[in-house]
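Morning!

This is the sequence you dropped in the shared folder:
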Amino acid sequence: MTDREKLIELQKQATTLYLDYLESIDQKGLTDTEGRAKFTADHLLANGVKIEKQGEWKQTKEPLGWQEVDCVECSVCGESWIVDEELSFEEQIFGWNYCMNCGAKMRECEKS
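The structure's back. Tokens below.
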């Protein structure tokens, strides 16, 4: 079963459970969009669906004592790390696919 098919199946289950819930409280005709959305979200999360944070590394310079040092910063959480000045930005972040602080998955780099 593909991820898409699994999500469709989970949404169908959530809708059925929500309609059964409405029937149990004698509210069959209720069309509560927000309630249905919250119920579906809870059902998806309870069944292991995760929201993946995505970000990118930003090349920055930050003050350290009397000088500025080269750093990379996560665009999601803002945490930054000092990088080796002898390596290029691309060499430094090669293999850094995730932020070590917040766990965001990294996309292409952005130079500033």
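Headline: The chain is about 35% helix and 20% strand.

More detail when I'm at my desk.
O.
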